[in-house]
Amino acid sequence: VATYLHAILAAAGYRTGLLTSPHAYRITDRWRVNGRVMNDKTFASLVEQIQPALEQYARTSPYDTVSFFELTDILGFLHFAQQRVQWAVLEVGLGGAYCSSNVITHKDAAIVTNIGWDHVELLGPRKIDIAREKAGIINTPCHVFTMEKQARLRDLFAQRTKKYGGAFHYIEAKNFRVRQTDIRGTDFTY
């Protein structure tokens, strides 16, 4: 979903950043701007830029060290700011409620994909538990989109959206059709 959105926004002429995880082959695969993966020189420069702040944090903070995932989000946010992206598409990590990507104070949209059985050992043994964690990305007034098939999970997302003053959108599968998928990408109608 994040990759689709990134491609759509970039094709529409917007300077668009994409943050995904995990990386497929190299750590720099996590960050793209208009389809281009971050290069090694930029990665090294970003690490050098944040190193003093990380060292100070390690010396002075009463909290745990910054996690690997948090560090990759920080690098992505800095990269997108320096690249002056107009849109940043952020794939949320584990769950959502406590994901470091959730520090963004303004979002135009939050998309919750169908709830599956991922990370049950951390998110909970039932789909409703997993849905509650994933609904944690809904924490500002924004448009919320889902294709979730189970009504009680959709209702949870709709209630949370209402709580924060957003607009809830249920996308029915019958309105979305993949026409062709090949090595160049996916062609679909909505």
Write the layout of secondary structure elements.
Layout lengths: L1 H10 L4 E4 L11 E3 L2 E2 L2 H21 L7 H15 L4 E4 L18 E4 L7 H4 L3 H8 L8 E4 L4 H13 L3 E4 L6 E6 L2 E5 L1
Parallel strand pairs: 1-4, 5-6, 6-7
Antiparallel strand pairs: 1-2, 2-3, 8-9
Helix pairs in contact: 5-6
Keywords for this entry:
alpha/beta, 19% strand, 190 residues, 37% helix, four-stranded mixed β-sheet, three-stranded parallel β-sheet
Structural description of this entry:
With 190 residues, the chain is α/β, with parallel strands linked by helices. It has six helices and nine strands. The strands form three sheets. A four-stranded mixed sheet has the order 3-2-1-4, with helices on both faces. The protein has a three-stranded parallel sheet with strand order 5-6-7, covered by helices on one side. A hairpin with a 2-residue loop joins β8 and β9. α5 packs parallel to α6. It starts with a helix and ends with a strand. The model has no long low-confidence stretch (mean pLDDT 92).
